[in-house]
Amino acid sequence: MLVRFIRVERNAALLLVVAGLLGLLVANLIGASIVSHQVSEISHYTLCLFFFLVGLELKRELTGGVFKNKKSLLVPLLAAVFGALIPAIIYFAITSNNPAAQSGWAIPMATDITFALAVFSFFARKFSKGARGFLLAFAIIDDMLAIIVIALFLGAPVLTGALVTGSALLGLLIPTKKIPKLENLIHPFVSYLVLPIFAFTALSLPINISITSVLASVVGIGIMLRVIGKVVGISLGAWLGLRLSGTQSDLKLRDYVQISILGGIGFTVSLLVTDLVFNKGSVEHSQAVVASLLAALIAAAIASVIYSFRGKPLS
After folding, report:
1. Domains and CATH numbers, the chain
2. pLDDT tens for each residue of 61-108
3. Which of 110, 154, 280, 285 would disulfide-bridge 146, Cβ 3.0–4.6 Å?
């Protein structure tokens, strides 16, 4: 089974947290001007390597991994689709009376692969083999959906949309036999340089609002509810996928529900979407960033507590 995050996922997630916190500290203690607009733009463009890697991951899974059985593909596919739609619908409903906030409907859609797999790795022994494959599968499709949304619906700059979409498609076009070598080459670079730099620049903004005000705002509420929306959407999609495909799985419904909690962890793509839909420095942008971080922490904490009480799967 594919996943180059196996060896570095925990360190990569830790580095992302450190880089993000450092960005927040620098911006609030020294000043946000330390990161120029040009540097921020460049960090967005370098994310193309991340989306290229997502394309490679998807191609390899389609040809020899968890997606090889096309019937079983329906389970993570519907889990990802419903897991993206329901949080977006909840956000759209919550912000229906606020046009300025409503443009952020895509922020709660994406799952952060690095963080989700990092949390899961601590408890992997308590799940059957299919659990990690399902998590990876719906997270990859989730990111592909985010790419489509960025390109078609967010009014992203033409260059940004073209680079993001083109990078993922390029990954899908790479011959299967060349994918392992490319992944080994690119993955450490993306995990230890591209994503941390993006986290630093994306979070290098002064926070002039309190957590209380974020939780009281429609933007904050809409994004925080992603934790619930992801659980409902992913679980429902997985259940429908099993019923429609007729495939057998070593996972029970409660396993899908518990794994779906990790879908509430949004970071990289959520921050990118935030930068695309809200002006940096605006109240909505600050609310979205803080709410995304809080939702990720809550989802990770809930998953960790629930997983810690799980027994090991029967052999």
Report:
1. 5-308 (1.20.1530.10)
2. 778 766 667 777 899 999 999 999 999 999 999 999 999 899 999 999
3. 110
